[in-house]
Q: What sequence folds into this?
């Protein structure tokens, strides 16, 4: 089987970050919004560094204004996922962008996205579940509102809660109320950590009681922490192409995913924000194959790890395993 044909499970995909630039340009034209400043002459997203990436991301997201916009986005994103051989993806969905944290509006967005996802599964065999995401640099109060939205819609489609955004703002523990609320609603928990802050941020994430960590790669700087991750079986949602595109590591061979796996940490692979980082799941696998010689057997192991760690019901998990 070629890398393109291998079935793939992805646990870390930001729905807005997966918006193809041509999709955002079309919406901007329909809504008469000038977004020319966020694109390069060749049409790709233009940004330099993480902070600017977040600004461009939020500018692109500003043209996604209705549940139908998100349904269209979901269809476009899952079409690309299916082309890359993805059979399951967990998408980060933000009440901050979908209805501004209002529960009633949020419900409409979730309904539209879930319906578009169900259609994509029926047509292309790619299942999706939603992980409601608060945005760290928007602060703990808005995170509470996001958690309440998550709790109100927890069910077959909304299965997890997480946090993205600028990890350099505040501490993980500032958001404990939101994570406790989501846990009580029965949601699986994950948070971005160890991407823009060091191992201490990953240790704080463990205190929050998450089952998974978004990125987590900088845990490698603390061998005792790596042992704790391995012992506890905390799953890392590693996004090598994202880390390289944002300059976290200078070259694929310098990326710590191979060392983390060798130390017994359960690692999985995802794209994060594929068109921003010029990646997809086939390119991620190809990068790992070239840098570390990973072959089909390792990718099968990653997918088993991802299927076990997926925030989904047991019937769907059985389909993935
Ligand atoms: N939101 C979208 N992509 C992100 C990333 N790589 N880190 C934190 N927040 C994000
Ligand atoms: Zn992310």
A:
């Amino acid at each position: 089987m070629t890398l393109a044909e291998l079935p793939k499970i992805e646990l870390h995909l930001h729905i807005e970050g997966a918006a193809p630039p041509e999709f955002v340009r079309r919406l901007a034209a329909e809504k008469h919004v000038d977004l020319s400043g966020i694109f390069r002459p060749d049409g790709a997203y233009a940004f330099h560094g993480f902070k600017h990436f977040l600004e461009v991301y939020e500018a692109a997201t500003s043209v996604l204004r209705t549940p139908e916009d998100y349904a269209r986005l979901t269809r476009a994103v899952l079409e690309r996922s299916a082309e890359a051989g993805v059979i399951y993806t967990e998408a980060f969905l933000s009440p901050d962008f979908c209805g501004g944290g209002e529960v009633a509006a949020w419900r409409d967005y979730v309904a539209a996205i879930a319906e578009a996802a169900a259609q994509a599964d029926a047509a292309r065999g790619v299942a999706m579940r939603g992980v409601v995401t608060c945005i760290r640099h928007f602060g703990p109060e808005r995170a509470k509102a996001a958690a309440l939205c998550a709790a109100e819609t927890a069910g077959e489609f909304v299965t997890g809660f997480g946090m993205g955004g600028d990890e350099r703002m505040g501490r993980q523990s500032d958001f404990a109320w939101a994570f406790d609320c989501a846990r009580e609603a029965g949601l699986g928990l994950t948070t971005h950590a160890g991407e823009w802050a060091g191992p201490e941020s990953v240790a704080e994430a463990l205190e929050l009681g998450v089952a998974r960590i978004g990125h987590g790669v900088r845990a490698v700087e603390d061998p005792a922490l790596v042992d704790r991750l391995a012992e506890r079986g905390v799953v890392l949602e590693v996004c090598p192409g994202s880390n390289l595109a944002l300059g976290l590591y200078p070259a694929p061979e310098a990326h710590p995913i191979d060392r983390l796996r060798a130390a017994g940490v359960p690692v999985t692979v995802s794209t994060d924000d594929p068109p921003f980082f010029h990646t997809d799941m086939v390119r991620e696998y190809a990068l790992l194959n070239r840098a570390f010689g990973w072959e089909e057997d390792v990718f099968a192991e990653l997918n088993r790890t991802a299927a076990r760690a997926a925030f989904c019901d047991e019937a769907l998990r059985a389909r993935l395993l």
Notes: The beta strands are 8-14, 86-93, 127-135, 158-164, 188-193, 212-215, 235-238, 267-269. Residues 238 and 269 are 5 Å apart (CA to CA).
